[in-house]
Design brief:
2 domains; eight-stranded mixed β-sheet; Rossmann fold; alpha/beta; four-stranded antiparallel β-sheet; 23% strand; 12 strands; binds adenosine-5'-triphosphate
């Protein structure tokens, strides 16, 4: 698989009320053509800020990219002007947000909203764009698209609205689709339908997907690779199997323990005790150390380097140092366990 996007040492900071919030602190990952990479982690870990940076959507002020590169098809996007971003956004890289109602313009017919990108990026005539909008609505499973293209967002149900948002995002056949909690606002049956739809579309178009979520069930259904974020850093990354069946970072263990299991006799979830770090004053050591049951003195003092566990898996944890005591992962982790 060829590399499509490379994010190198990305650092994003927000300056608010005299504080410097270091939301993303040196994130590095790559995205290959046609794959789905999930970025998981608790609220505030930096997932959304990372994905917004890839779309040139960090509000400035108060935000700025302090360092790093976002290399898309060989070109670094960090120095892009707003004009450069406008050429790219919605065409090469598209985004689906959590709440379809805020992503759509309530005063504009959905057909027109789909047509905008086609006219701007693909220089279609109005009637060509309208035909394509109808095709797209059909493609995302909206019945009677010839009629619905003339309707406004409030005339659609929540699930149908999210389908419209997906149609807009896919209109120009983007190479990268960023889906930020795309199903969180929807009920469970609709969630499954939308995820199926995204998978089908990916099969047809070969679009690479970055899926941002805190729901590991969604990850298991969708992703081939996973990056686990905590405190503005990627603490572990690997293939889906590596992260689910051979995780090495205690934070990943915590996330897996807090995931509902399919055949569980009890539905009690083990939330990770404690709170995430204050990113306006980030710790010098491992950000998870204050909540980690296995933390040693060195964890508080010094950020661990990545240990490469396989060609595809790495974790930033002092437990992987050869001098560290051997620790077994808790029995509560794993999909479909007791
Ligand atoms: N516009 C902004 N101004 C100031 N701080 C911000 C802004 N956007 C994000 N942050 C801060 O950046 C940090 C990371 O936030 P981010 O939204 O990326 O987390 P997340 O992992 O996506 O969480 P969630 O799942 O809740 O969306 C947080 O501390 C947040 O308060």
């Amino acid at each position: 698989m060829g590399k499509l996007l490379e994010v190198k040492n990305l650092q994003v900071q927000f300056d608010i009320f005299g504080a410097h919030v270091q939301a993303v602190r040196g994130v590095t990952f790559e995205l290959n053509k046609g794959e789905t990479l999930a970025i998981v982690g608790e609220s505030g870990s930096g997932k959304s800020v990372t994905s917004k940076a890839l779309m040139g959507l960090i509000p400035n002020p108060p935000g700025k990219i302090k360092e790093g590169q976002i290399v898309f098809e060989g070109k670094d996007l960090v120095a892009n002007t707003e004009k450069d971003w406008m050429k790219l956004r919605g065409k090469d890289i598209s985004m689906i947000f959590q709440d379809p109602m805020t992503a759509l313009n309530p005063t504009m017919k959905v057909g027109k909203q789909i047509m905008e990108g086609l006219i701007l990026h693909q220089h279609m005539s109005k009637s060509q764009a309208r035909e394509r909008a109808i095709d797209l609505l059909r493609r995302v499973g909206i019945p009677n698209p010839e009629k619905r293209v003339e309707e406004y967002p409030h005339q659609f149900s929540g699930g149908m609205r999210q389908r419209v948002v997906i149609a807009i995002a896919l209109a120009c056949n983007p190479k990268v689709l960023i889906a930020d909690e795309p199903t969180t606002a929807l009920d469970v049956t609709i969630q499954a339908q939308i995820l199926d739809l995204m998978r089908d579309i990916q099969k047809d178009t070969g679009t690479a997907i970055i899926l941002i979520t805190h729901d590991l069930g969604v990850v298991a259904n969708m992703a081939q690779r996973v990056a686990v974020m905590y405190g503005g850093k990627i603490v572990e990354t690997g293939t889906l199997d590596e992260i689910f069946y051979n995780p090495k970072h205690p934070y990943t263990w915590g996330l897996l323990s807090s995931m509902p299991k399919l055949h569980a006799k009890t539905d009690k979830l083990q939330a990770i005790p404690g709170t995430p770090p204050d990113l306006s004053n980030p710790p010098k050591g491992c950000p998870f150390a204050p909540r980690c049951p296995y933390a040693m003195k060195v964890c508080v003092d010094q950020m661990p380097a990545y240990t490469h566990l396989s060609e595809t898996q790495k974790a930033a944890c002092w437990l992987q140092d050869e001098r560290a005591p051997k620790v077994e992962p808790p029995k509560t982790i794993g999909v479909g366990g007791e």
